[in-house]
Amino acid sequence: MENVMQNIKAPTGSELTCKGWTQEAAMRMLMNNLDPEVAENPDELVVYGGIGKAARNWESYAQIIESLKKLENDETLLVQSGKPVAVFRTYEHSPRVLIANSNLVPAWANWEHFYELEDKDLMMYGQMTAGSWIYIGAQGILQGTYLSFVEAGKKVFGTADLKGKLILTGGMGGMSGAQPLAGKMAGAVILVVEVDKKRIERKIKEGYCDYLAEDLDEALKLAKQLQGKNEPASIGLVGNCADVYREIFDRGIVPDFVTDQTSAHDPLNGYIPNNMTLDEALQLRKSDPKKYEQKAKQAMADHVQAMLDFQTAGAEVFDYGNNIRKYAQEMGVANAFDFPGFVPAYIRPLFCVGKGPFRWAALSGDPEDIYKTDALAKEMFADDEGLVNWIDMAQKMVKWQGLPARICWLGYGDRHRFALKVNEMVASGELKAPIVFGRDHLDSGSVASPNRETEGMKDGSDAVSDWPILNALVNTAGGASWVSVHHGGGVGMGYSQHAGQVLVADGTEMASEKINRVLISDPGMGIVRHADAGYDIAIKTAQEKNVHMPMLKT
Ligand code: NAD
User: Fold this and answer.
1) Annotated binding site for NAD(+), which residues?
2) Of 76, 133, 193, 383, which sits with the fewest C-beta atoms within 10 Å of its C-beta?
């Protein structure tokens, strides 16, 4: 078994090893999640986001692969927190895989109970795209991060161009590692504080970060020089945010934007406490988990207090989706929620029109297939300047990780039109193998997360998780290739419920029928969720695009 797990690479090309392209796609995407180029810690099956895993253990991984290889075209494999538990006869049009990860009955939904179950090997943490096999590396969050910076720029300075501006943030792991490149793409100088030097080195190797600094003076000097020249660039500074943010503040430096994307959602296996070295922290995590957690939460409180001070001093400060405000509040920072989350601050209008982090991957493994889909997107959406610029920038700046893929925030109406054309390109042989379409669970109509995606909803429905459940149900009914329902992604146990779907365009008529159902209902749920909550843009979009809502009040 040991050898199975080393250097996993998804097979590429047009040769099938399973009994159909949907099973093949699920297998390749699971393997791709664990490709060392893609995953943060593949030896432990960890893909990103603290301990977000693709399968419960190596035995489960091997059995999932085995089951997918044998799975018939009218069967469905059930996966419970990363373990394959059953295969049932369904329909050809049904999903081939149904996944439920990390779900706990609400009164038990906390890290303590989760870790008890994990210790007994009864559960794993699926994060969002880790356990649902549609992670595509740092690119998956790149455009969303770029959009957040650009929207923040528009709000504060009235311009999307952040030249000469300074962004301060934390974390350079799986998703947070998109920040340095996204900040640079937006034109800014971005200083990212990361406690683990190896993570910065990896991002430099991957082309996501420009400079490594080991000393705050050196980093600040460099940032000032680059800002003076209006030169977009990224600097990774080795340090702990809980210390460094305060030191920067004490020197009287107020960055234009301050945020953070360390793994604060998990005080035990994510966030690193300050006043000790990284090695000491990792030792303490093992020897005294309770003390570790306490120290991590205290460090989060210091970290958030410094962010609040930056806000008072005039910086644009926002939470970047890791629940750090909640833990700081628990530790006595009463006004931790004085700065907003990034969704209500910048992203919600996009959710109202069904837009979100849509992505696709080429099962051929050939970048040419992605370049052809890029050209199609630019042609189909030529009047969307932002989208065209995005694809040009991504082609120049994003290095492939694992299977070639593209992230592109398409909305309702555009997703299915685009996928239908791609399906035709697969059918005609213009593309060498099928394309997999998917999205983050952080999408417009697939998540309930009161400290993140559904923070401050207009009608107060932040914690209503009927929506992601309906999303998974309708995508299952519509015949998505695989569907997942998770708990705790992004912000940790007890704080979110969310759903994912993936659809394979294999060039068949059946694929186009499924596209016409799933890629309409899935983003449609985003419009419905926000129209129901009373957002004018969503109501208008529902009316203009004939989204059928029996009780929509206008
Ligand atoms: P990760 O675990 O791969 O990386 C987190 C990084 O933070 C690690 O490199 C770690 O060394 C570093 N770190 C931890 N504590 C630190 C500290 N005190 N000071 C400096 N560095 C520290 O996780 P990830 O995939 O990068 O995700 C990070 C967080 O962002 C998670 O909480 C995740 O749930 C959240 N997230 C947000 C979004 C979004 O759109 N806003 C999307 C995905 C994930």
Assistant:
1) 49-50, 127, 194, 199, 261-265, 271-272, 320, 490
2) 383
Run of H or E including 287: helix 278-287
Compute CA distances 276 → 214, 293, 347, 390, whole Å. 16, 14, 36, 41
* Catalytic residue selected from 18, 209, 352, 408: 408
Whether 292 lines ligand 1, by a CB cut-off of 6 Å, is no
Ligand 1 mean position, distance from CA 304 (Å): 15
Whole-angstrom distance, CA of residue 348 vs CA of residue 107:
29
Consecutive 10-residue averages of pLDDT for the chain (554 residues): 71 97 98 97 96 98 98 98 98 98 98 98 98 95 94 94 97 96 96 98 96 98 98 98 98 98 96 97 97 98 98 98 97 98 95 97 98 98 93 94 97 98 98 98 98 97 98 98 98 98 98 98 98 98 97 84
- Helix-then-strand count for the chain, H and E: 19, 17
In the numeric block, which tokens belong to residue 478? 């519509």
From 416, 374, 375, 260, select the one nearest 323 (Cα to Cα).
260
Q: Which of 263, 268, 324 to mutate to test the pocket of ligand 1 (most atoms within 8 A of CB)?
A: 263
Residues 6+ apart with CB under 8 A from 410: 355, 358, 381, 387, 418
Q: pTM for the full model?
A: 0.94
Residue 193 near ligand 1, beta carbon < 6 Å: yes
pLDDT at 135: 97
Q: Is 18 a catalytic residue?
A: no
Binding site: residue ranges?
49-50, 127, 194, 199, 261-265, 271-272, 320, 490
State the amino acid at position 174 in one-letter form. Answer: G
pLDDT at 4: 53
Q: Please state the length of the chain.
A: 554
* Alpha helices (runs of H) in 331-458, residue ranges in sequence order: 342, 348-352, 367-380, 385-397, 414-428
Q: What is the pLDDT of residue 221?
A: 98
Residue 356: CB within 6 Å of ligand 1?
Answer: no
Rg value, the chain, Cα: 22
To which residue do tokens 């969307």 refer? Answer: 384
* Dihedral pair phi/psi, residue 550, rounded to 5°: -55, -30
CB atoms within 10 A of CB 513: 13
Residue 377 amino acid letter? A
Q: Are 366 and 432 in contact (CB under 8 A)?
A: yes
172 within ligand 1 shell (Cβ under 6 A): yes
Selection from 15, 56, 66, 14 nearest residue 34 by Cα: 56
Contacts of 552 (CB under 8 A, 6+ apart): 531, 532, 539, 542, 543
Say which CATH topology domain 139-346 has. Answer: Rossmann fold (3.40.50)
Residue nearest to atom 29 of ligand 1 (CA): 263
Angle between helices 58-70 and 21-33 (to 10 degrees): 160
Nearest to 319 by CA among 337, 295, 297: 337
Encoded tokens for 423 = 């399906």
Bridge partners of 167? 190, 257
